[in-house]
Specification:
about 70 residues, alpha+beta, three-stranded antiparallel sheet, about 15% helix, Phage protein
């Protein structure tokens, strides 16, 4: 997965559905990464191996239900 850098190292926001912190983000979809580079002038700084990216937390099954 490519790691993308913005021209502004302080950028905090969402572009094309990708959340950037301190001007950096890891992009799961390579086609989105290519658009960010071609259309927005962002740079691919490195490629992050998939093992190092933590999966999103799964919701707990059997969460407490409200009493009736």
């Amino acid at each position: 997965m490519p790691k993308i850098k913005t021209p502004n190292p302080n950028y905090e926001g969402i572009t094309l559905g990708v959340k950037f912190n301190n001007g950096e983000a890891v992009v799961e979809d390579e086609s989105i990464a290519k658009i960010l580079v071609a259309d927005y002038g962002y740079l691919i700084s490195e490629t992050v191996p998939e093992e190092t990216v933590k999966p999103a937390a799964k919701p707990r099954k059997g969460a407490a239900k409200a009493s009736e």
